Amino acid sequence: MAFIMSVQTWYDYTIIKQNIEKDIKQNATTSLHQIKKTVAPYIQAFSMDEYLKIIETEMEHQSIYAIVIEDYNLGKVLGLEKFVSGKIRDNNWEVVDFLSDNSNHQKSLSFQYYYVFDTILDQDGQKLATIAVYGSDKFKAQRLQELITKQVVASFVLYILFLLILYFLIHTFILKPIDRLLENISNKDKYGIPESIYKARATKEIYTLTSTLHNMIQTIKESKRLQSEQKKELQLIFDYSKDGIFVMDLDSHFLTFNEAYRQMTGYTKAELYKKSCVELTLPSQREVAAKVIKEVIQNKEITNFEKICVVNEGKQLSINMSMVLLPDQKRILVTVKDMTHIKLLESQSKLVAMGEMIGNIAHQWRQPLSVVSTSASGVKVQKRMGVLSDEALEKSMDLIVSQTQYLSQTIDDFRDFIKKDTDQTKEPIKIKETIVKVLTLIDSSLSNNYITVIKNIEDDGVV
Questions:
Q1: Are 293 and 286 in contact (CB under 8 A)?
Q2: pLDDT tens-digit profile of 352-385?
């Protein structure tokens, strides 16, 4: 706006300046022609007063500074080369007589903006006089100043009007929608999310902005709703899980835990918050537990770590733990299963199995031991009676040896059956041999329970 008004002012200034200069020149030229056409008879008649009146009339043009006539005709009468007369303006711009001997008059003529002159001839072509008309640009600056002032005032008025219109447009289509947008944004719910965003019917950019914010807020609300539902579900799992769940820091101090884990330890919440996971570990296993936590920090997780916890009142729990490093790298999530009852059942099962095994051994050994005892007693009786023959002694000894070998083999079979296969080596076996060994181990129990096993087993290859 300022640039346009400046260009317009400069253009008007140039045009008016040219017009003023043109008027000055035109007035001077017109006055010259008018005087030349009118004063010739008065010069010939030596009527100086008359042509001075005509000159004074032409001086009514404010742009005419001076009109000077050099009268050769009157000069001859006065014995001069020429008689100079005319009109000029003083400092107050009043018209006064031109004095040829006035140095100020002469000097001022040389500073005038424009002048024209012409010669008046008689019928014989003799020079009667010369006329010079001087134009002044004194009022040019004033008129241009008035123009500039007028243009500045007009520009200022237009500028103010433009600002008012611009303010109205900005306020209506930008500020007001933004203000309403800010008002909507400040109206937040308990989570700090704006309740809603008004889709302003303003500029394209404002409408796009409000629409985008509206869609963004709806997306955030939907995400928040889903997050809230997931949080409730996770909280339900956390609260109602039968397994213990807790979160600890990297130094194994408890940060939060569920009720199942609290009941597992027997401590109150306040007491449990003062303890740590390593502190609840059996003293002989604490070093291992600390190493496992470092391993979790390094490898992000570990599963099925078993240890013994010493909880309230010195009670010992056999637990299985799985640990995961949370994304913030500052907390560890731990799930705990109480394996105490399972371990007890395993121990009881082992004892029952061991009892059954011992029973089978007792049944398996009873008959061979009876044979050994009977053979030894028979040899002893025959010896006392003096009827022991070498053949009977040898037969009894062979029987005792075979039965002891049988007992030794039975021990080996039971040992192979119950031993732990630590090296996990794989060896070829025969199914028939395996079945025969199993039946041999439980033969006594089968007999005592009047069970007869009918074996119809074909020999097989190595498996």
A1: no
A2: 667 777 777 776 677 777 778 888 888 888 888 8
Task: Give me the helices (H) in 45-137, please.
Answer: 48-58, 72-77, 103-109
407: three-class secondary structure by DSSP: helix
User: Which of 154, 155, 111, 152 shows the shortest CA–CA distance to 134?
Assistant: 111
Q: Are 6 and 148 in contact (CB under 8 A)?
A: no
- The amino acid sitting at 229 is E
Q: How far is CA 343 from CA 85, 308, 443, in A?
A: 145, 11, 31
Taking the C-alpha atoms of residue 2 and residue 296, their distance in angstroms, rounded to an integer, is 72
pLDDT per position as a tens digit, 404-422: 887 787 777 777 766 644 4
Look up residue 114 and give its two tokens. Answer: 């424009």
Locate 290 and state its tokens: 């600390």
Residue 414 structure tokens: 């039971």
SS3 content of the chain, % helix, strand, coil (to 5): 60, 15, 25
Instruction: Measure the CA–CA gap between 162 and 168, rounded to whole angstroms.
Output: 10
**Alpha-carbon radius of gyration of the chain:** 67
CA separation for the pair 432, 454 (Å, rounded): 14
Give me the pLDDT at residue 350, please: 67
Using CA atoms in the order 452, 458, 461, 463, what is the torsion angle rounded to 10 degrees? -40
- Token output for 369: 């031991």
Please give the full DSSP string across 336-404, using - where no structure is assigned: EEE-HHHHHHHHHHHHHHHHHHHHHHHHHHHHHHHHHHHHHHHHHHHHHHT---HHHHHHHHHHHHHHH
pLDDT digits (tens, 9 = 90+) for 261-319: 888 888 998 998 988 889 999 888 889 999 999 999 988 898 888 888 888 888 888 88
State the residue for tokens 């008065």. Answer: 42
**Rounded Cα–Cα distance for residues 105 and 424 (Å):** 138
Torsion, Cα of 162, 167, 173, 179 (10° steps): 170
